[in-house]
Amino acid sequence: MMRLPKFEYRVPRTVAEAVKIIGDVGPEAQFVAGGTDLYPNMKRRQQTPRTVISVMRLAELNQITGDGKSGISIGASVTLTDIIEHQLINRDYPVIAQAARMISTPILRNMGTIGGNLLLDTRCNYYDQNYEWRKGINFCLKKDGDICWVAPGSSKCWAVQSSDLVPVMVAIGAKFLLASTLGERIIDAGGFYNDDGINYLKKRPDELLVDIHLPPANGWRASYQKLRRRGAFDFPVLGVAAWVKLDQSQEQAGGTPAFPVQDARIILGGIAPSPIEVNEAAQTLIGKPLTEDQILAAAEAAYIKARPLDNTDFVMNWRKQMTRQYTIRALHELV
Question: In the chain, how many domains are there?
Answer without folding.
Answer: 2
